[in-house]
Amino acid sequence: MPEIAISTEKLTRRFGALTAVDGMDLQVESGQFFGFLGPNGAGKSTTIKMLTGLLAPSSGRVALLGLDFAQNLVEVKRQIGVVPEGMGLFERLSAPEYLEFVGRMYGLDKATTRKRSDELLEFMQLADRSKTMIADYSHGMQKKLALAAAVIHGPRILFLDEPFEGVDALAAGALKELLARMTERGVTIFLTSHVLEIVERLCSHVAIIKKGQLVAQGSMEQLRAGVPSVEGRTLTLEDIFLSVVGQGADRAQLEELSWLT
Amino acid sequence: MADVVGGPGLADQIRTVAWLRWRILRNSLRNKSRRLDVIGLIFSGFFSLLFVVGLTFAFYFVTKALFERHLEPLLGLVFLALLVWWQSFPILLAGFAPQFPFRTLLRFPVNLSAFYLIGMAYGLADSAALAALVWMVAMLAATAVAQPAAVPALLLVCALFTVLNITIERLLGAWVEKLLAKRKSREVFFTIFVLAMVSLQFLNPLMQKYGRAFLPMVRSWVPYLWLLPSSFAGDAVAQSAGHHWVAAFLKFGGLAIYTCIFTTLLGMRYSQLYSGEELNEGAAPARKEKRTALTTQEAQDTVTFVPPQVLAVFRKELLYLKRNTFLFFGLIFPPMMLLFFSVQFGGVHPTALKKGVPPDLFFPGMMAYLVLILIAPSYNSFAYEGRGIQTYFTAPARFREILIAKNLMTIAILLCEIVLCVALVGWRVGLPTTPVLFATLAAIVFSIVGQLTIANWASLSYPRKIEFGKMQGQRNSGMSVLILLGMQILFGGVSGLVLVSGRWSGNPWLPAEAFAVLAAAALGGYFSSLDSFTQLAEKKKEILIDALCR
């Protein structure tokens, strides 16, 4: 039986009267490239924050690699890497300084931190900006650095919130290959993105959240089986997403914008 | 095809921009967390009004007196006061008040001349300009009473002087904007600005010592004032009051030439902006340098008994201190102020007192002042983390380690400053007696450790983001300030009581012993609080992330 990397039980988060995540039961197996989708305000970021220890659940339980997160805070954090929503960078450090800081926070020794930091900066094409402060980096460069920091300690689970946003196509291609290889080695990757083509291409399994509740979960084949098919072509993730979550603006609303169209 | 409407008129655009400014101000006041700001605004508004009204009377009476006593040539000095005010106040304001990003208007279909005129209209709506206009009206009223014949000339001069001042003010504003667009220059600018403000404290003792020699030098500069536009303005009015029309015309011409020159310069500056000048230049890529691998010795931690997480955060704090120009140069203030106090109140010939304060009082007082100033940032110790705060929560570190590292940094700064200031006090005033010296040192330990414990709690409970290189709106949360104030009073009061008890009992060593016991208790309290603060950080993480990542 495969190991369960991420497991939640009745995971709930309330903000006053609003229930952002409502009794979510989620299971992600080790080595899966898992896509987590949902429209704006569905509860994706809230879920990822609870899974990475950035937000306490109102109720329910999170277990990562079989360890209860609340009971084994430090041990669990040692096993995971995170690219959070705001990237969590110390903007007044240079990239090597930041990676050195993160490496040391994860308990890596100086020599390993230096070696990995150099290799990652080279891979992310940031080596020629090693003396520039992070505050002066472009958004895409900051994203690449956040990714480097998330993997420097060799995590077993990687949480990525919109990791390719602002990253150029060249670097994104290399990154996707790196992530795919990591899953081959048994690393679990939990990815949220609004770019459905990326999720479809990378992820073996997908979950869709709507108004704080899971409305679909499974492999691409399982998801396709769950929605009405379209004659003559294979359903894309976009078809599935729209079918599960509901259509966006309808034709009548578009008609109102006739002055524009 | 989408409909494209015709462009709006210039008056419409100015009206729209004025509406935008008003909405921005109104919305900033609607923010619930800024209620204290509203109260502050009411107070500052009231005092500003008092200031303007007071000076309106001053301008009225001075102008009237000059005409009545036939001292019209001195009108240039009145215009000089206006010029200095008009040009210096907006720059002061640029440091403290949020500025409207004027250049963003270039996104809209505005032609260069409209952009220029909107800029000038902006200058006219500036608070410095409005105050100056009120004062010029007071001058006109005084002239109407004292010498009505000079009113048309003064009116003409005031109109041109207004155009000139707005032009210079907009030009300086555009240059300051260019200067402040770069982070490093912005920080250096603010540091120089604050240093200059602090240096003003030395003006009084310096004037007392060198005033007599300084005044003749200042007087020798006065003849050169005729070169300033304010002198041209004053002379134009004075000459026309004396019916010397040719001279008045020439002086007015001088003022017009000044206006033309600055109008040209402003036009050039605005056309640069209009053509799409980018102020925020990114850093150029550095030459790729392969870092050498660490030697076995380098790869070892030099301090082995401290967890790597503590060392990592300590190093990060050190780098942040070095890169926070404002905070870094802020470390100069305490010794500077101490020097100032020693000149004013200590030593054999103090400038503010007849007899110097004895070292037994001066030394503890100065050390208390040092602790008071330097420990204040610890009450909001996560202020500069920004989004980096998330790393503390995703990394496998406990907050006890993070707090220890931050506190170690504060202690290291305090230690350096205390050593420097002890040497300074020793040189300027002399060291106190041995019992007072030991009592003060033990009191410092008690106060620092005790306050750091409370400061850690305040930092976790009432965080407020502070941005590098910005001055406007950069302050601790109101609650954190109240806690700081309460703790300073508490620790100051306890220390005062202990010192008094020494005098009262007649045992000079009693305060030292009492402070040693208090310091030991504070240390015990500090270490036992760290675990509960780790739990508190978990509970407060949403508040911290929300406050620091916005």
Mean of pLDDT of chain B: 84
- Give the terminus-to-terminus CA distance of chain A: 55 Å
Radius of gyration of chain B: 30 Å
CATH class of chain A: Alpha Beta
Largest sheet of chain A: 6 strands, mixed
Q: What is the succession of H and E elements of chain B? A: HHHHHHHHHHHHHHHHHHHHH
Overall geometry of chain A = globular
Topology order of chain A in helix (H) and strand (E) letters:
EEEHEEHEHHHEHEHEEHHH
Number of strands of chain B: 0
Measured by residues with Cβ under 8 Å of the partner chain's Cβ, the largest interface is: A-B, 50 and 50 residues
Separation, N- and C-terminal Cα atoms of chain B? 40 Å
Spans of chain A with pLDDT under 50 lasting ≥5 residues? Answer: none
Class from secondary-structure proportions of chain A: alpha/beta
CATH architecture of chain A: 3-Layer(aba) Sandwich
Number of domains of chain B: 2
Q: What is the fold named in CATH at topology level of chain A?
A: Rossmann fold
The global form of chain B is: globular
Return Rg of chain A in Å. 20 Å
Per CATH, the superfamily of chain A is P-loop containing nucleotide triphosphate hydrolases
The proportion of residues forming helix of chain A, as a percent range, comes to 25-40%
* Helix proportion of chain B: over 70%
Description:
The complex is a heterodimer of chains A (261) and B (550). By secondary structure, chain A is α/β, with parallel strands linked by helices. Chain A has one domain (4-256): Rossmann fold (3-Layer(aba) Sandwich). Chain A is 37% helix and 25% strand. Chain A is globular, with a radius of gyration of 20 Å. Chain A starts with a strand and ends in a 5-residue tail after the last helix. Chain B folds into two domains: 10-202 and 222-274, no CATH class; 305-549, no CATH class. Chain B has 21 helices and no strands. Chain B has helices spanning 10-30, 35-68, 75-96, 112-124, 127-146, 151-181, 183-199, 203-221, 229-241, 245-274, 296-299, 308-323, 325-330, 333-345, 359-375, 389-394, 399-428, 434-461, 478-505, 510-539, 541-549. Chain B starts with 9 loop residues before the first helix and ends with a helix. The model of chain B has no long low-confidence stretch (mean pLDDT 84). The interface between A and B is large, with 50 and 50 residues.
